[in-house]
Design brief:
Helices cover 33% and strands 26% of the residues. The protein is α/β, with parallel strands linked by helices. The chain folds into three domains: 178 residues, Alpha-D-Glucose-1,6-Bisphosphate, Chain A, domain 3 (3-Layer(aba) Sandwich), CATH 3.40.120; 223 residues, Alpha-D-Glucose-1,6-Bisphosphate, subunit A, domain 3 (Alpha-D-Glucose-1,6-Bisphosphate, Chain A, domain 3, 3-Layer(aba) Sandwich), CATH 3.40.120; 134 residues, Alpha-D-phosphohexomutase, C-terminal domain (TATA-Binding Protein, 2-Layer Sandwich). The protein has a seven-stranded mixed β-sheet with strand order 2-6-5-3-4-9-8, sandwiched between helices. The chain has a seven-stranded antiparallel β-sheet with strand order 20-21-24-25-26-19-27. Strands 11-10-12-13-14 form a five-stranded mixed β-sheet, sandwiched between helices. Strand 13 and strand 14 form a beta hairpin. The longest helix has 15 residues. The protein starts with a strand and ends with a strand. It binds alpha-D-glucose-1-phosphate-6-vanadate (VG1) and cobalt (II) ion (CO). Cobalt (II) ion binds next to loops.
Length: 542
């Protein structure tokens, strides 16, 4: 019932920041997905008879690859597959299911916030037994296997019925189709004060959540409307669509513009939020105020003990290097550890497993905690709601008070998407080449203090990751960071991260782009962005 198929390697299956992401037609090439999945299995040891979790964000091609993955898991000797009904599992839900059922690992099919559809993006990612993205040593091994693969194994059986919960047999392996929402919703009930949130909502606190026609819809409906009693209709675009309705399921100020406009209006709800394609990102907007993800991390950490799951306090906070230093000030005040990692959730896994960090976050709208090993969009929304229900203040008041206490880190990211790869690499190389000469250089009133290419030394397993982004630090604590994206599927995306710390509360009301104007100009002077990319302005400003 299983067969071994001869194949030839593809040369472009190197996992990026978060798994392998390519256009759907690339994945549709003969044996493309099969090669990658077999290479995952070939990189692992000791899974015979064990459980594998499989789920995806419901995008175009999800069902096809889920069938392939199940049949290959059977042929390769797994004992059981847990798969979400309809092939659906949000990324944080997949992480939780892996942990809860002590699975060997999981295959998560997603290209996250990238658009979906026949000519858009698809992705495959492997998560290890702690529920988190495979660390670099595993993704490196997977990539090595993709370059030498000659055969893959697959069960020669009919498709699994993904739409009926319960157990089925696939070539001697058990496939269990599970409810994608219930385990996750139960976990959320253990972390947050649902009665307090329910009472706050019943008292007239109005929320709106945009699921962006992506995977969080069923989760948000169940948790926010059914369990917490938010008014029917509070969750928008809650049916996951294979093409996300033709939109980018990216919860930022560009792609969730309508939500932003609504939240800035006179009759705005009290709290607005959105999540991305696979449910691990969050956008938080209070009535009249967008909360940057970096600020959200700091504010959540500062108030986390108001939620039952964190009442005992935090062990530490971890943030990715480009994320603003706002969380550092909270950690300092709390007297707990602060860790600075490279971009990508895989770097938080060791810190969480070792109990060094409890809450983690990235400037790219990712926040999460030790409850799973992925970032978690709805979790962030629920922690905010828990804090708001207890403090009974508005988001804007909480933010202002936070800035008054800790100072404000003005922060913005400028993305230049689909830039010519050679031009983008040239820009980074040129920056790297001048690093040694930058300290002491003046740009207007700004003076460069240090400049480097970020290297991370993992304090748990001692692994080292180099070339994780160029940092230019100015006297006084402002900084500009340059990185190339590792999740794009065409050309290169240059990300420029800009930050200024402002301790003076009288200066906390400035428009962010104005507050950062001199740093934005300095970034262009140093990197020659306009000249090298031919762009006069960023594609996306968040
Ligand atoms: C981006 C973000 C990064 C995030 C990654 C995966 O990576 O910057 O913070 O961890 O996406 O998120 P990059 O390499 O394009 O900058 V998701 O929600 O796409 O799984
Ligand atoms: Co995502």
């Amino acid at each position: 019932m299983t067969k071994t198929v001869t194949t030839t390697p593809y040369t472009d299956q190197k996992p990026g920041t978060s798994g392998l992401r390519k256009k759907v037609p690339v994945f549709q090439q003969q044996n493309y997905a099969e090669n990658f999945i077999q290479s995952i299995f070939d990189s692992l040891e000791g899974f015979a008879g064990k459980t594998l979790v499989i789920g995806g964000d419901g995008r175009f091609y999800n069902r096809e690859v889920i069938q392939i993955a199940i049949k290959m898991a059977a042929a390769n000797g797994f004992g059981r597959v847990l798969v979400g009904r309809g092939g659906i599992l949000s990324t944080p839900a997949a992480s939780h299911v892996i942990r809860k059922y002590e699975a060997f690992g999981g295959i998560v099919l997603s290209a996250s916030h990238n658009p979906g559809g026949p000519t858009e993006d698809f992705g495959i990612k492997y998560n290890i037994g702690n529920g988190g993205p495979a660390p670099e040593k595993v993704t490196d091994a997977i990539y090595a296997h993709t370059k030498t693969i000659t055969t893959y194994k697959i069960a020669d059986v009919a498709d699994v019925n993904l739409d009926a919960e319960g157990e089925q047999d696939v070539a001697g392996m058990t496939v269990q189709v599970i409810n994608p929402v219930s385990d996750y919703a139960e976990l959320m009930e253990t972390l947050f004060d649902f009665p307090a949130i329910r009472a706050h909502l019943a008292g007239g606190f109005r929320i709106v959540f945009d699921a962006m026609s992506a995977v969080t819809g069923p989760y948000a409906k169940e948790i926010l409307e059914n369990r917490l009693g938010a008014a029917k209709g509070s969750v928008l675009n809650f049916v996951p669509l294979p093409d996300f309705g033709g939109h980018h399921p990216d919860p930022n100020l560009v792609h969730a513009r309508a939500l932003y406009e609504e939240m800035m209006g006179d009759d705005a709800p009290d709290f607005g939020a959105a999540s991305d394609g696979d449910g691990d990102r969050n956008l938080i907007i209070g009535k009249g105020i967008f909360v940057t993800p970096s600020d959200s991390l700091a504010m959540l950490a500062a108030n986390a003990t108001l939620a039952p799951g964190y009442a005992k306090g935090l062990a530490g906070i971890a943030r990715s290097m480009p994320t603003s230093g706002a969380a550092d000030r909270v950690a300092e005040k709390l007297g707990i550890g602060i860790y600075e990692t490279p971009t990508g959730w895989k770097f938080f896994g060791n810190l969480l497993d070792a109990g060094l960090a409890t809450i983690c976050g990235e400037e790219s709208a990712g926040t999460g905690s030790s409850h799973v090993r992925e970032k978690d969009g709805l979790w962030a929304v629920l922690l905010w709601l828990n804090i708001l229900a207890v403090r009974k203040e508005s988001v804007i008041d909480i933010a202002r008070e936070h800035w008054t206490t800790y100072g404000r880190n003005y922060y913005s990211r400028h993305d230049y998407e689909e830039v010519d790869s050679a031009a983008a690499n040239g820009l980074m190389d040129a920056l790297r080449a001048q690093l040694g000469t930058l300290p002491g250089r003046k740009l207007g009133d700004l003076v460069i203090e240090t400049a480097d290419d970020f290297s991370y030394h993992d304090p748990v397993d001692q692994s080292v990751s180099n070339n994780q982004g160029i940092r230019i630090l100015f006297v006084g604590g402002s900084r500009v960071v340059f990185r190339l994206s590792g999740t794009g599927t065409s050309g290169a995306t240059l990300r420029v991260y800009i930050e200024r710390f402002e301790p003076d509360a009288a200066k906390h009301d400035v428009d962010t782009q104005v507050a950062l104007a001199d740093l934005i100009e300095a970034a262009d002077t140093l990197a020659g962005i306009k000249e090298r990319t031919g762009r006069t302005e960023p594609t996306v400003i968040t």
